[in-house]
């Protein structure tokens, strides 16, 4: 069956890597077009930690994440309806993706309990019992007005040994998808994505793909990963799922944000990623670079007057003569521990780093040079020491025709 076109999402495939499963595409959404593959920064409470909307715009971001759970509590649905949604609330003219709110509840609230009806929990405000149903999650996301909404799913840790519970969660997530589709009031302006579950069991994942792909949502996510499972298992799930997805729909792997994980997932055919890690690690003084993460709180940077990253063209790293701030490592060292400004500056750099890496990835795919890009990236990351390459990445990339150990 040919997928029906979504009124709020068009997916134009620009190029396919001749070797791996990587793709480059343009996704047209209600608040503008975005280039895939892409990384989406996470703005928890309608603000990216450490960045103003203007600063986020300067990194080139055209799609960021908001958390339904946080927005539902504050400012709350009534205020969201009154102001006309989250774009207006945070003065963000580009696209927004919202999660369902379920994951936050299960991970933040110890007393959350999942039943067929929904997720039961005690209000963090007054301890009163509350219930998040698929219908309520969609109603909140309709009030937020996000360009991409996620279904409420039943999330289980991939490391859970309880296969019966994983199976129950997978089938429940399919039933909840049907309830989400039925509850969705604005399909003409908001896209609902399904979330594939099934833990690390490839047969369950395949069954979930079959059922959810048949429901023909505008985009598809792979959920429940990045929970501490072995990276080899993680890659098998991504590889298995993308092989069962239709070509002309965006594929989103949730919660993935380390550069190496993203690069491998792109080779396995995924298009979209999100993670709080770039801004979280910035708050600990870590700058992400091609040669790995560097902690600028280390005393060796006290008199280092070089830019945070010589190869970076972000607002922070560019010299004043190039229109940037010309921030030095020494400045971050002396401010990171005491002042929030150090963390803010590093957040801008880190978000820019990931967005820029994705721009390079896309260019390499379009030029048919992604395998060479992967080899060059790993070589820089590990200073040419192939012994240090993570075996899971080497193995996963071999599976799609790229051998990191062999130079071209
Ligand atoms: Zn930078």
Automatic annotation (TrEMBL):
Signal peptide: none annotated. GO terms for cellular component: cytosol. Substrate binds at residues 99-103, 153, 197, 224. GO terms for molecular function: metal ion binding; tRNA-guanosine(34) queuine transglycosylase activity. This is Queuine tRNA-ribosyltransferase catalytic subunit 1. It comes from Acrodontium crateriforme. Keywords: Cytoplasm, Glycosyltransferase, Metal-binding, Transferase, tRNA processing, Zinc. Its cofactor is Zn(2+). Catalytic subunit of the queuine tRNA-ribosyltransferase (TGT) that catalyzes the base-exchange of a guanine (G) residue with queuine (Q) at position 34 (anticodon wobble position) in tRNAs with GU(N) anticodons (tRNA-Asp, -Asn, -His and -Tyr), resulting in the hypermodified nucleoside queuosine (7-(((4,5-cis-dihydroxy-2-cyclopenten-1-yl)amino)methyl)-7-deazaguanosine). Catalysis occurs through a double-displacement mechanism. The nucleophile active site attacks the C1' of nucleotide 34 to detach the guanine base from the RNA, forming a covalent enzyme-RNA intermediate. Residues 20-379 form the tRNA-guanine(15) transglycosylase-like domain. Coiled coil: none annotated. The keyword Glycosyltransferase applies. The active site is at residues 99, 274.
């Amino acid at each position: 069956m040919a997928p029906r076109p979504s009124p709020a999402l068009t997916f134009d495939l620009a190029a396919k890597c001749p070797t791996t499963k990587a793709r480059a595409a343009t996704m047209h959404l209600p608040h503008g077009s975005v280039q895939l593959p892409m990384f989406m920064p996470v703005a928890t409470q309608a603000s990216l930690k450490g960045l103003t909307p203007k600063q986020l715009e300067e990194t080139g971001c055209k799609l960021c994440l908001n958390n339904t759970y946080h927005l539902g509590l504050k400012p709350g649905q009534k205020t969201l309806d009154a102001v006309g949604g989250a774009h207006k609330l945070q003065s963000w003219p580009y696209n927004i993706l919202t999660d369902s709110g379920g994951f936050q509840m299960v991970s933040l609230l110890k007393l959350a309990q999942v039943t067929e009806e929904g997720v039961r929990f005690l209000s963090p405000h007054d301890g009163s019992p509350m219930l998040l149903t698929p219908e309520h999650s969609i109603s909140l996301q309709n009030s937020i007005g996000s360009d991409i909404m996620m279904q409420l799913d039943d999330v289980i840790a991939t490391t859970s040994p309880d296969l019966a519970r994983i199976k129950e969660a997978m089938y429940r997530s399919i039933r909840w998808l049907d309830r989400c589709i039925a509850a969705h009031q604005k399909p003409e302006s908001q896209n609902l994505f399904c979330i594939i579950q099934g833990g690390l069991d490839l047969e369950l994942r395949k069954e979930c793909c079959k059922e959810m792909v048949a429901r023909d949502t505008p985009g598809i996510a792979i959920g429940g990963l990045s929970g501490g499972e072995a990276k080899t298992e993680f890659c098998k799930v991504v590889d298995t799922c993308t092989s069962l997805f239709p070509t002309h729909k965006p594929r989103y792997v949730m919660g993935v944000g380390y550069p190496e994980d993203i690069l491998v997932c792109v080779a396995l055919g995924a298009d979209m990623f999100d993670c709080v890690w770039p801004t979280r690690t910035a708050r600990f003084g870590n700058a992400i670079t091609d040669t790995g993460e560097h902690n600028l709180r280390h005393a060796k940077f006290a008199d280092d007057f070089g830019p945070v990253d010589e190869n970076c063209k972000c607002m922070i790293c560019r010299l004043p003569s190039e229109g940037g701030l010309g921030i030095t490592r020494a400045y971050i060292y002396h401010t990171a521990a005491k002042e929030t400004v150090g963390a803010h500056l590093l957040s801008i750099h880190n978000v820019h780093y990931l967005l820029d890496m994705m721009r390079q990835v896309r260019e390499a795919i379009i030029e048919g040079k992604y395998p060479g890009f992967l080899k060059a990236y790993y070589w820089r990351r590990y200073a040419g020491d192939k012994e240090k390459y993570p075996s899971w990445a080497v193995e996963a990339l071999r599976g799609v025709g790229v051998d990191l150990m062999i130079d071209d």
